[in-house]
Amino acid sequence: MLTILHQDDHLVAIHKPAGLLVHRSELDRHETRFAVQLLRDQLGRHVHPVHRLDRGTSGVLLFALDKETARLAGAQFERQAVDKTYLAVVRGHPQEAGRIDHALSRRRDDAEWVGDDASDAPQAAVTDYRRLATCELPHAVDRYPTSRYALVALTPHTGRRHQLRRHLKHIAHPIVGDATFGKGRHNRFFQQQFDCHRMLLHCARLQLVHPHLGTPLRLVAAPDGTFAAVLDALHWRAALPDWLGPI
Asked: In this structure, is residue 244 part of a structural domain?
């Protein structure tokens, strides 16, 4: 059963576990479980994803219960009118806070139509980050005698594909567990040291305007499972934002 964070007559939000695809993909033809299908079966009605999360990312995922609501809510994402906060564990110690303003070339998925006018030119992409906690472990994972990691809060102001993962790689602080943009040695260290076999990226909060009521809608999901276990192992639980509540 999927964990439901919010449900009303028009919208339903779930806590998507890491490793679950939002919908069927030609790139993962062997997969038989998708969030759309599982939620449809759980509720006994059609659902429409309003946005996407990468397969490896956990956290808040919003669905509409009808096409008109999906259109209205999706428009807020397209206008970049939705406030999003992610949590990530990254390699190294980034600055206490900063902005990553780095254009990203377009990355298409198998569902995108590529027409004659489609451009692959870099698109503006902006992410703010804030460092929440750090640690230095006595393990020579890379070329140094110790290894540094940090917990960061990320606020994307644009919605480019894989934006957070690519932006963190750009500033040389890749997300731990990211097999595409991360560092294999550090990924393997977390697998061996913490039994962590997932990407440590989590959508912790979405804030938007309810498309029918016109009132603020705030959706929150605290890290759980392996992510929460890593936070405990590194003694970072106290560094989490207060708005997450207890985990």
From this structure: no
Asked whether residue 45 is domain-assigned, the answer is yes
Measured CA angle at 82 (ends 78, 83), to 5 deg: 140
C-alpha to C-alpha distance for 75 and 71, rounded to whole angstroms: 6
Predicted TM-score (pTM) of this structure = 0.92
Is residue 226 included in any domain, yes or no?
yes
Active site residues: 54
| pLDDT tens-digit readout, 87-130 | 999 999 999 999 999 999 976 554 433 344 455 789 999 999 99
Q: Is there a domain that residue 181 lies in?
A: yes
CB-side exposure of 153: number of CA atoms within 13 Å? 18
Q: What count of other Cβ atoms lies within 10 Å of the Cβ of residue 197?
A: 12
CATH number at residue 209: 3.30.2350.10
Q: Are strands 97-101 and 126-137 parallel, antiparallel or unpaired?
A: antiparallel
The total domain count for the chain is: 1
